[in-house]
Amino acid sequence: MTDHQPGRHMAAEIDQQPGIFDGLLARRDGIASVASAIAARKPRFVLLAARGSSDHAALYAKYLTEVLLELPAGLVSPSTTTLYGAQPDLRDVLVVSVSQSGGSPDLLEVTESARARGALTVAVTNTASSPLNAAAELSVDVGAGVEQAVAATKTYSATLLALYLLVDAIRGGNGSAAASLGDLARSTLDSSADAVAEAVQRYRFVDRVLTTGRGYSLPTALEAALKLAETSYLAARAYSGADLLHGPVAAVDAETAVLAVTSSGKGGDALHDVLDAVHGRGADVLAVGSASDKVSAALRIPVAETAEEVAPILEILPIQRLAHGLALARGGDPDNPRGLNKITRTR
């Protein structure tokens, strides 16, 4: 016998995020000291290593690196090291390994190998005592606390914020664009609740969902598809808005639900024509973001407006609530999705 209420851990962890943001912002000086060490080394290239939700956070950091630091950046393919034994020259390269647990064997091996080949290595994790932190030269603790639900919520958003603060500090910023995120997260969760509840009822019987975004919001679209797939077992697929028009749009019809992440800024502006095309094919569009009222959609979930580069930290909050609500409405337990464990060990 158990008294576990389905989804209670995930619900609680979603609600904890505003306070976690406040805590991270209060510890910005520690992140800035890591950034100073990185800036002093003057890396010429940035590589990001991650898996799962952390891979979406790494993609967000890739956008930050290329736009704010104007440095080339790429995502590591761990198997080139773990399976094929490749040994590239990584002098003057910054390797950032992103992992909630810090316990994935492949990320540990990638980090150790990169450090041995001359890279400056940084671990961004939620587990300060993890093997990954020990392997990296520098580390950033995202400080989200223990996460009980299998589906990552607070660790994902806290990782986004930690990565933003790190990149911003490397360029000499003071974190001002993120300063009010704790309060904005509270207002976003509160103001979006009714629209999320309406979306749960509207999409509870849908079988196929397509998610899309541009620019900084693409990682949010990818994370949205993952959350819907792992908690509600939906056939969810994410596309960049740019790629969507290059073929996949042909599969969009009146039976397709499209979750579009659209916030104020260049990425949201670039999504307008895409959503006009999708809407014209009869798809049921759910727009999420601070610019959701500016696009063609059947339903909109508002998000507080921020500088575009920090919008993903807020965009994901109502989507997590949506995934939680849909899982419960479809008879599942988002705390314990079938076939999944909190730590996935890959090589």
From TrEMBL:
Domain of life according to the entry: Bacteria
Q: Name one Pfam family in it.
A: SIS
Does the keyword Cytoplasm feature in the UniProt annotation?
no
Keyword annotations of the record: Aminotransferase, Repeat, Transferase
Primary enzyme class: transferase
**Under which EC number(s) is this enzyme classified?**
2.6.1.16
GO terms for MF: carbohydrate derivative binding; glutamine-fructose-6-phosphate transaminase (isomerizing) activity
Residue span of region Disordered: 328-347
Please state every residue range assigned to the domain named SIS. Answer: 34-176, 196-337
Q: Which InterPro entries match?
A: GlmS/AgaS_SIS (IPR035466), GlmS/FrlB_SIS (IPR035490), SIS_dom (IPR001347), SIS_dom_sf (IPR046348)
Q: Which CDD domains match?
A: SIS_GlmS_GlmD_1, SIS_GlmS_GlmD_2
Keyword Electron transport among UniProt keywords: no
Q: Which GO terms fall under biological process for this protein?
A: carbohydrate derivative metabolic process
> Per its UniProt record, what PROSITE patterns does this chain match?
SIS
Tell me which stretches of the chain form a coiled coil: none
PANTHER family xref list: AMINOTRANSFERASE-RELATED, GLUCOSAMINE--FRUCTOSE-6-PHOSPHATE AMINOTRANSFERASE, ISOMERIZING
- Protein name as annotated: Glucosamine--fructose-6-phosphate aminotransferase (Isomerizing)
